[in-house]
Every structure is written in C-alpha cells, then in structure tokens.
Amino acid sequence: MEKININEKLNLFSEHWSPKIVGALNGQHVKLAKFQGEFVWHKHEHEDELFYVLDGEFNMEFRDQTINLKTGEFIIVPKNTEHRPVAPKEVSVLLFEPASTLNTGNKKDDTFTKEKQEWI
Amino acid sequence: MEKININEKLNLFSEHWSPKIVGALNGQHVKLAKFQGEFVWHKHEHEDELFYVLDGEFNMEFRDQTINLKTGEFIIVPKNTEHRPVAPKEVSVLLFEPASTLNTGNKKDDTFTKEKQEWI
C-alpha cells in the first residue's frame, strides 16, 4: 500500500487529452489528465464521469449549456449525456470513472481516442 | 446538472468524523469529512476506500505501518484492511467509496458510527 502524491504524478507527463491511471478501487479508476484546446463531442453509454479541477479552469460544454469549472470544483457528467471539455489554457484534472471508460466514449477519433490507458 | 465547489461545501459543516455526501456516480459516493483526533480501528468487508487530503494532514494507521498523508496526497485502503485515521490537527478530506459504505465499517461505535449520512 502506497500513498499517491498528485503533483508528483502530474509532473510525469505533459501530453494533453491522455488520461493516466493513478488508482483503482471498486471497479473504478482514478485518473489524471491535462487538457488544452477543444476535445471532441462524445458521451458514455454506461458510465457517469467525474471531473475535478486540480489546477486551472476549463469549460464543460453540453448541448444546452456550458459550465465553467475552476480549481477546487467538480462536475459529474451522467451517462448518455453529450459533453465536450474545452480548455483555453492548460488545466490539470482528476477523473473518477469506471475502469471500462474510454476517453472519447461513443466517438472513435484518430487523434483523441486512447484505447490503452497507461498507469503512472 | 450542477458543479460543486469543494470549499463552499466544507464551509457548511464543522463536525468531525461525520462524512457528508456531495456527489454520486456509478454506485459510488463522493464525500467530504473533517477529521480531528483518533478514530476507531475498523475495516470494510466489501469496500475499498479512497482518502484524499484537501487541506492539512493526518496519519493512516495500519496494523503494521503508519502512512502520513498531506495536502494533495491520497491513499486507497483495500477492503478487509484494518485502519484507523488519526489527525493531530483538523484536516479536510475527500472520500470516494461505494454508496453502501458505513464510516466505521465492521465496528459499531456509539460515538463514531453514522448510520445515516447526509447530503449537503
């Protein structure tokens, strides 16, 4: 059993839109990601997804509204809800979601989809 | 759908050892708690439990070691592992665990057990 220091883990990678797994419990994964720019519109059919801002801010776009999230704020996106994160500047985010969750959900994208998510 | 600001939620309560629910996803709860002093030794038969330090520090005691956790660090305590959080000073903690999780696990305690956990 080891503790995890989030800042140390964030220093291990620089890619955007490429979540890294840092913990697993009860069939769920804890992931860290850095966002910058516009992601793709997508939804997850079976998985709710939590986004917690560690440092910075981004906009979570939905079809009917946009929610701005700043450091210390989180949102839970329910399954089957189309969403698109957009980050004007780089932001560090913690994700909590089922181990089965693919980052682009129902939308396979040559640039963004990461079939194999890495542990760090 | 609403975003949650963690500091705003932390300002809503002051009791120690009384986790408050601030989110639910995939059968799991996100909870906030304030610890101060010594909790009771206990374990959870079926639930892994994540403790993430938001502000402050505490010691997670296990039967064979103690792990000190500071702001920005987390630990996942596997099911069936006896543990006891001890906080010399007040510390704010985020918990991720199944919705079924009772705070004192297998140990019913008149002082510490909270059968009914409140949403804030």
Class per helix and strand makeup of chain A: mainly beta
Quick one: which chains have the greatest interface? A-B, 32 and 32 residues
What share of the residues of chain A lie within helices?
under 10%
CATH topology of chain A: Jelly Rolls
CATH superfamily of chain A: Jelly Rolls
Poorly predicted residue ranges of chain A: none
- CA-CA gap between termini of chain A: 15 Å
CATH architecture label name of chain A: Sandwich
Find the count of extended strands of chain A (DSSP E, 2+ residues): 8
Give a concise summary.
The structure is a homodimer. Chain A has about 120 residues and is mainly β.
Outline the structure in words:
2 copies of one chain form a homodimer. By secondary structure, chain A is mainly β. The first copy, chain A, has 1 helix and 8 strands, in the order βαβββββββ. Chain A has one domain: Jelly Rolls. In chain A, strands 2, 3, 4, 5, 6, 7 and 8 form a 7-stranded antiparallel β-sheet that branches. In chain A, a hairpin with a 2-residue loop joins strand 2 and strand 3. The model of chain A has no long low-confidence stretch (mean pLDDT 95). Chains A and B meet through strand 1, strand 2, strand 7 and strand 8 of A and strand 1, strand 2, strand 7 and strand 8 of B. Strand 7 of chain A pairs antiparallel with strand 1 of chain B.
